[in-house]
């Protein structure tokens, strides 16, 4: 049975006990409203650890002033039973006050330069500072040996990897594959904001990513592929933030240069901002 812990001292005592027994600790940080994508991360962490902790914390410092912090879905009872079913041992449920004891304004912040400033970072200023600030706190609270993050948030994973390498966190980062609905829409807590009319249109993001991959494979110039993708989404009714093809480290490749690529999209459908990506 999963145990829910709300006090840091109790969490530390539980983890200390496990470590005394020589057990490896896995960690899956979340903001709750969990779905199959999150549960697959718990199962991934389980493969590399003897015990798994997951946190549910809607982190105020990673939301911009006009974003959905207050309306972000909070579904803790369903999350507890889902985590239990996925094999999670402990749910860590901190409060905003315990996460930011000096208040959000006076909180020490973690900033990872470079990779934080492009794409999502450019469209959501300060977002990755909030993510790194909370993830570094969570790592210090849970003291995991491994931690799993989803590839759906491709740039977040890159930022976290850089933070862990730069600040020498003794945590191995695992990357979980994107889990999709049957029509290809990447699972996300924000999908539930989509109206019944918008929901089928949301699958256009995946079709556009596939078209980008095919365009590059056919040798078309990157700028042309990116512009065509933007037009495809525009025509389907999206307001596009970006449609880009990058190297895996998110730097810009030259046309014709061999090597792995990732296509990334961020676009708004009505009030819902969707992000997705495809590695090839
Ligand atoms: O990916 C998320 O849900 C959040 O950004 C994370 C990593 C839990 C930090 O709040």
Automatic annotation (TrEMBL):
What InterPro entries does the record point to? Pantoate_ligase, Pantoate_ligase_C, Rossmann-like_a/b/a_fold
Q: In which pathway does it act?
A: Cofactor biosynthesis; (R)-pantothenate biosynthesis; (R)-pantothenate from (R)-pantoate and beta-alanine: step 1/1
Q: Which reaction does it catalyse?
A: (R)-pantoate + beta-alanine + ATP = (R)-pantothenate + AMP + diphosphate + H(+)
Q: Which GO terms describe its molecular function?
A: ATP binding; pantoate-beta-alanine ligase activity
UniProt binding sites for beta-alanine: 62
Keywords tagged on the record: ATP-binding, Cytoplasm, Ligase, Nucleotide-binding, Pantothenate biosynthesis
Taking the record's annotation, the residue ranges forming a coiled coil are none
Q: State whether keyword Transferase applies.
A: no
Residues binding ATP: 31-38, 150-153, 179, 187-190
**What's the Enzyme Commission number for this chain?**
6.3.2.1
Pfam families given for it?
A: Pantoate_ligase
Primary location recorded for the protein, binned into one broad class: cytoplasm
GO CC entries: cytosol
Q: Where in the cell is it found?
A: Cytoplasm
Q: Name one GO biological process term.
A: pantothenate biosynthetic process
Write out the catalytic residues in the record.
38
UniProt: (R)-pantoate binding residues = 62, 156
Q: Which HAMAP family match?
A: PanC (MF_00158)
Q: Could you tell me what this protein does?
A: Catalyzes the condensation of pantoate with beta-alanine in an ATP-dependent reaction via a pantoyl-adenylate intermediate.
Additional detail: The reaction proceeds by a bi uni uni bi ping pong mechanism.
Describe its assembly.
Answer: Homodimer.
Into which family does the record put it? Belongs to the pantothenate synthetase family.
Name the UniProt record assigns to this protein: Pantothenate synthetase
Q: Kindly list the organism's lineage.
A: Bacteria, Pseudomonadati, Pseudomonadota, Gammaproteobacteria, Lysobacterales
